[in-house]
Amino acid sequence: MEPICAPATPLLPSSVVIIRVSGERLGQMLKPLVSLGKPRFAKLCRLRWGGYSEKSLVIYFPAPDSYTGQDVVEFHLHGNPLLARRFLEYLGEIGIRLARPGEFTQRALLNGKQDLLDVEALRDLMDATTDTQLRQAQARAGRMPAWVLEAKASISKWVAQAEAYIDYGEDEEVNMDMSELRAWAAELGETFHVERKRSASARWLRDGIRIAIVGRPNAGKSTLFNALAGEDRAIVSELPGTTRDVLEVRCQWAGLPLRIFDTAGIRVTDDPIERLGVARIDPILQEADLILHLVPILDEGPEPAILASLGPFGEKVMTVRNKCDLGVGQGICISATSGNLSQLEVALKQRFFGKFAPDVCLGALATARQRELLAELSYQMDLIADLSNDVPSELPASLLQGAWGLLARLTGEDRAELALDAMFSEFCLGK
Question: Which CATH number fits domain 146-204+362-412: 3.30.230.10, 1.20.120.430, 1.20.140.10, 3.40.50.300?
Answer without folding.
Answer: 1.20.120.430
